[in-house]
Amino acid sequence: MNPMTPMNPMNTLTRRSLQCIGLASLLAAVLPGHAQTTAWPSRPINVTVGLQAGTGSDVAVRNVAEKVAAALGQPLVIGNLPGAAGLLAAQQGIKATPDGYNLVALSGAAVTTLPHMQKGTSFNPVRDLVPIAMIVSFPSVISVNRSVPAQTFQEFVALARKNPGKYTYASGGNGSVQHTAMEQLMAMTGMKLLHVPYKGMAQATSDLVAGQVDTAIQGVVAVIPFTKTGQVRPLAWTGANRNPLYPDLPTLHEAGVTGYNFQSWTALFGPPGTPREVVARLNAEIRKAVAAPDLRERWLPNGMESMDLDPAQMAKLIREENEQMAKLVREVGIQAD
Predict the structure, then answer these.
(1) Which of 106, 180, 191 shows the shortest CA–CA distance to 144?
(2) For residue range 288-299, what is the model confidence (pLDDT) as tens digits?
(3) 199, exposed or middle or buried, with CB in 10 Å at 0-12, 13-18, 19+?
(4) The pLDDT of residue 38
(5) Is the pLDDT of residue 208 over 90?
(6) Residue 201 is part of a domain; what is its CATH number?
(7) Is residue 38 part of a domain?
(8) Which of 93, 137, 285, 330 is the most buried (most CB within 10 A)?
């Protein structure tokens, strides 16, 4: 260029603009904020399950994860952390990076019940967990041994009220879901039953069948073989709806216990700050997965079903259960083993 030739101000402006654009692009590529503009998911998603491997909940999470992974184009990597009945997994999940790549699957008990029983539990499930989607629920029934002279739930309530403390009920231990479910039912019906806690429901079921205890609330699959032989008599479903396994069996609500609704469940959560768009996408994909006919057919004989809730409905359910359990634990003085 001739040193005497004047510079074109437009050329100078163009060069400066290009330099600025290049610098902005470079910064966007290296600064943390750039991750927010990357399409989610761009890598595998970690899911910690707060229950033992091989349990019904664990199997359900893995079933759903397989379908969701296919829809998202990224694998869901499942790991189990069952310590402290799921509370360890909950605490780990709360502290995870809220980027949609670190999620936790927890039982309803770990979220709404155990925090009120375990001393030193520092988290608040309503405040500290972001509800994403329900994975599975387990329909339960209240059953009696065949020696109990009651054909209906109303007849059993009448017997129990007439003979307070005579009839016994089994649970999987102090503070177990079977314990809290029956305590809530007694509070709502005026029954007074004697609690017999076991270390898990396997022995409890055996003793119910043998007549060592009179009644129990438990998952329906555990009692099906013994209802067929007549050793155990189911009286009512404990959840809000009937189940095809026993379509003629009424719910407790239908049997006169207005508002009673117990059904154990497992759901997916994220840490505080999980992006709303991630929650919405996961909720949609999980609801599609659990509605798939092949999954429903696989789950039904195993006493598993889905709960079709959006995040807001799920949050409402958790809030209500949390309040109910806080009140029950405080008034009855329930403590976990």
Answers:
(1) 191
(2) 999 999 999 999
(3) exposed
(4) 80
(5) yes
(6) 3.40.190.10
(7) no
(8) 93
What's the predicted TM-score (pTM) here?
Answer: 0.85
Q: Read off φ and ψ for residue 169, nearest 5 degrees.
A: -130, 145
Task: Please give the residue range of the domain that contains residue 231.
Answer: 140-237
Exposure of 232 in the CB half-sphere (CA atoms within 13 A): 27
Same structural domain for residues 146 and 284? no
Q: In what order do the strands lie in the sheet containing 194-197?
A: 194-197, 168-171, 215-219, 140-145, 232-237
Same domain (yes/no): 62, 207: no
**Burial status of residue 187 (CB atoms within 10 A of its CB: 0-12, 13-18, 19 or more):** middle
On whether residue 257 sits in a domain, the answer given is no
> By CB neighbour count within 10 A (0-12 exposed, 13-18 middle, 19+ buried), where does 179 fall?
buried
* Number of domains into which the chain is organized: 2
Check: CB of residue 336 under 8 Å from CB of residue 140. no
CATH number of the domain where residue 270 is located: 3.40.190.150
Strands 215-219 and 102-107: unpaired
